[in-house]
């Protein structure tokens, strides 16, 4: 069964450093999402991406964040200058256009900012 | 008022019990309602989704949506220890399909 994959599974970084989180969505999916989950809190929407551009972003997704689809398979989330409060699980998700209510999540990247 | 509210639990039940998990919401624009299961430190796994009001059944799982009350439920019949996880409700208004999640209910099924 196709699945969303994410790398790395864990990332530890120093405050102020740049990190890039990578996702490979399911191959025929066209909408892509990033969510985050701070430990003990709810899953929160960050950004949605369709047709090579951001379609919607939350208040959390400020100028420190960017997304890119550098090739036909990868979808990345970049945090330019990490803060302590960026420590969280980051989940990538994707959907098809024919079944838009079924959003499939990757296993997540656990980011720890020291 | 929070957009989606969910009792965090934990909910502890004996094996074989019927489990009822619930969420309430405030945004009447929500049209799609999902239940996800999340094991510790893993990604959410889609269990069921429902469009608008009504019931949907899949094996031991039944999802119910009551839009007039802004209330959704997930029932698990014949619960198993392997059902022990956190259950997340999520909703979408169908425009961008971004999901708004509840805080999750932690379920423990005792053997």
In short:
Chain A is mainly β and 114 residues long. Helix content of chain A is 0%, strand content 50%.
Topology:
The complex is a heterodimer of chains A (114) and B (111).
Chain A lengths: L4 E3 L2 E4 L5 E6 L6 E7 L5 E8 L2 E5 L7 E4 L6 E5 L8 E8 L8 E2 L3 E5 L1
Parallel strand pairs in A: 2-11
Antiparallel strand pairs in A: 1-3, 3-8, 4-5, 4-9, 5-6, 7-8, 9-10, 9-11
Chain B lengths: L3 E3 L4 E4 L4 E7 L6 E7 L6 E7 L2 E5 L2 E6 L4 E6 L8 E8 L7 E2 L3 E6 L1
Parallel strand pairs in B: 2-11
Antiparallel strand pairs in B: 1-3, 3-8, 4-5, 4-9, 6-7, 7-8, 9-10, 9-11
How far from one another are the termini of chain B? 38 Å
User: Biggest sheet of chain B: strands, sense, closure?
Assistant: 6 strands, mixed
Helices and strands of chain B, in N-to-C order? Answer: EEEEEEEEEEE
Tally the helices of chain B: 0
Oligomer: heterodimer
Binned strand content of chain B = over 45%
Q: What is the H/E string of chain A?
A: EEEEEEEEEEE
User: What's the total number of strands of chain B?
Assistant: 11
Low-pLDDT runs of 5+ residues of chain A are none
Give the fraction of residues assigned to helices of chain B.
under 10%
Helix content of chain A: under 10%
Short descriptors:
heterodimer; A: 114 residues; seven-stranded mixed beta sheet; four-stranded antiparallel beta sheet; B: 111 residues; mainly beta; 11 strands
Could you explain the architecture of this structure?
Chain A is mainly beta. Chain A contains no helices and eleven strands. In chain A, strands 2, 4, 5, 6, 9, 10 and 11 form a seven-stranded mixed sheet that branches. Chain A is globular and about 40 Å long. The model of chain A has no long low-confidence stretch (mean pLDDT 91). By secondary structure, chain B is mostly beta strands. Chain B contains no helices and eleven strands. In chain B, 34% of the residues are buried. The chains are: A mainly beta (114), B mainly beta (111). Chain A binds chain B through residues 4, 31, 33, 35, 41-45, 48, 55-56, 89, 91, 93, 95, 100-108, 110, and chain B through 32, 34, 36, 41-46, 49, 51, 88, 90, 92, 94, 96-104.
């Amino acid at each position: 069964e196709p699945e969303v994959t994410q790398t790395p599974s864990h990332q530890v970084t120093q405050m102020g450093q740049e990190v890039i989180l990578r996702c490979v969505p399911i191959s025929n999916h066209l909408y892509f999402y990033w969510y985050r989950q701070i430990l003990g809190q709810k899953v929160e929407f960050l950004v949605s991406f369709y047709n090579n551009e951001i379609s919607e972003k939350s208040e959390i997704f400020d100028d420190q964040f960017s997304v890119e689809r550098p090739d036909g398979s990868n979808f990345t989330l970049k945090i330019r200058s990490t803060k302590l409060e960026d420590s969280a699980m980051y989940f990538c998700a994707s959907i098809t256009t024919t079944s838009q209510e079924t959003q499939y999540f990757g296993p997540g990247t656990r980011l720890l900012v020291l | 008022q929070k957009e989606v509210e969910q009792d965090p639990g934990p909910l502890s039940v004996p094996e074989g019990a019927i489990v009822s998990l619930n969420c309430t919401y405030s945004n009447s624009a929500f049209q799609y309602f999902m239940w996800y299961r999340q094991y510790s430190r893993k990604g959410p796994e889609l269990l069921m989704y429902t469009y608008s009001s009504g019931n949907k059944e899949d094996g031991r799982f039944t999802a119910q949506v009551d839009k007039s009350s802004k209330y959704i439920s997930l029932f698990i019949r014949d619960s198993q220890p392997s059902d022990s996880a956190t259950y997340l409700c999520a909703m979408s208004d169908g425009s961008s399909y971004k999901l708004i999640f509840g805080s999750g209910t932690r379920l423990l099924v005792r053997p």
